[in-house]
Amino acid sequence: MAVYKVTVATGDMVEAGTNNSISITLVGSYGESRQTTVSFLFLPGKERSLSVHCGKDLGPIVLIRLHKWRLFLEDAWFCKDVRVTAPNGTLYRFPCYQWLEGVTTVEVREGSGKKLVDDKLQIVKEHRRRELAARQEAYRWKNFAQGWPRCLNVDSIFELDSNIQFSRIRANNFTGFLIFQGASHFLSGFLLRRTSWNSLDEMRTIFSRTQGRDIGECL
Q1: Where is Ca(2+) annotated to bind (predicted)?
Q2: pTM greater than 0.70
Q3: Residue 75 annotated as lining a ligand binding site
Q4: What whole-number distance in Å separates Cα of residue 161 and Cα of residue 81?
Q5: Is 17 annotated as a binding residue?
Q6: Which run of H or E residues covers position 218?
Q7: Is 119 annotated as a binding residue?
Q8: pLDDT of residue 65 exceeding 80
Q9: Which domains does the chain have, with CATH numbers?
Q10: Residue 26: CB partners within 8 Å, gap ≥ 6?
Q11: Cβ–Cβ contacts within 10 Å for residue 210, how many?
């Protein structure tokens, strides 16, 4: 019996957690584990640990499969990374950093930065081929107009996978930050000022400088 220690980390964004079922399969050079449930509840910024029991040593772990099942309502999950410790103490890291939506299975390679020539196992070669095909399907280009730069072949950004779209959470935070800072400067500039402005140019200089700095800090 070989026992693997697995730690699954959720991103720290507000909506990164999920109450859907998440399970994992370990794939090694000598075989793969059975599908093992990790948890039915993931909180943002938290980790879940479990033990995966296998009938034999799987050899070097080359990739993992994360399975997401919807129990009642859809609840997307953002996986940060997965760490697997083999019985001999070897630590394997699997950086994920992507959203899992709906009923889906996502394969993640071990994060040691292998090149195409390093792929010896057929299962790893097949994973690279599928990943390339998926990217080619996602990033299709079209001509918007003669002489214009090429653009993505979609009618709306909502047709894109959520991992390609600009994060709605980041967009909301960005907008909220600008509104808060704009209101703060407005109040401090107009309601708390004890003397009159000398000119409109003075107002433009002060507000353009402070707002430019705040936007840079936000980015």
Answers
A1: 17, 75-76
A2: no
A3: yes
A4: 19
A5: yes
A6: helix 200-218
A7: no
A8: yes
A9: 2-112 (2.60.60.20)
A10: 4, 6, 32, 33, 52, 54, 58, 61, 64, 84
A11: 16
